[in-house]
């Protein structure tokens, strides 16, 4: 299994930038990087996509996914236009640097919609986006483990992905989100491993389920997430992709940028060696 770094992990560290992240990820042995939407836009204020492509061509580290196309579903017409414009930008970046996946998250605070209605509309939107990006680009739906997220459990997200029924549409398993809204291991074990496109690694404080924000994430195996169960289920269904560390913790942002990325590399390597 390959090792990935999501830029959120060091996002607020002093000196953080896309280029700084890439250099540190290369130094500490990551195979892939998930590029954040804000970081790449900041990078392009002073650099070009050609420079970014050249950097990846000359280093071991490669781009894994664009993170994130936010709030793809339950949008008004103006919101749908924003999504279209953002996808056009994502495709421009992805084609330039050889990135093959975008991760998308659902909308929050959707009022007076049934789960069935939310699923049906999400299927429609993901089919539209599947057509827009083309068969060479993957879309990975990341459910978010919060009570007010429109798609907040693995089972619901997987139902949507199955109904979409496109080879280029799959799902992101984030261990924090999986834990927070009590997603079921039996649902994961019943899934098609080929539909698991991304695997986000993190942990969670021992607080009431559904109450935690992203700032309550921890390094893997420092909290209460059932990593053994999730990892075993992923192995059982044949997942063998990239394990990507993704943190948002203020205490980790207080570390130096290099120490943050170094620590992230150490815990990700140790986790993969233990479970995979």
UniProtKB/TrEMBL annotation:
- Tell me the Pfam families matching this sequence: AP_endonuc_2
Question: Molecular function terms in GO for this entry?
Answer: isomerase activity
Protein name per its UniProtKB record: 2-keto-myo-inositol isomerase
The yes or no answer to whether the keyword Transmembrane is present is: no
| Domain Xylose isomerase-like TIM barrel span(s) in chain numbering | 24-269
Sorted keywords for this record are: Isomerase
The record's annotation in InterPro entries points to: IolE/XylAMocC-like, Xyl_isomerase-like_sf, Xyl_isomerase-like_TIM-brl
- PANTHER family in the record: HYDROXYPYRUVATE ISOMERASE (PTHR12110), XYLOSE ISOMERASE-LIKE TIM BARREL DOMAIN-CONTAINING PROTEIN (PTHR12110:SF21)
Q: Which residues cross the membrane?
A: none
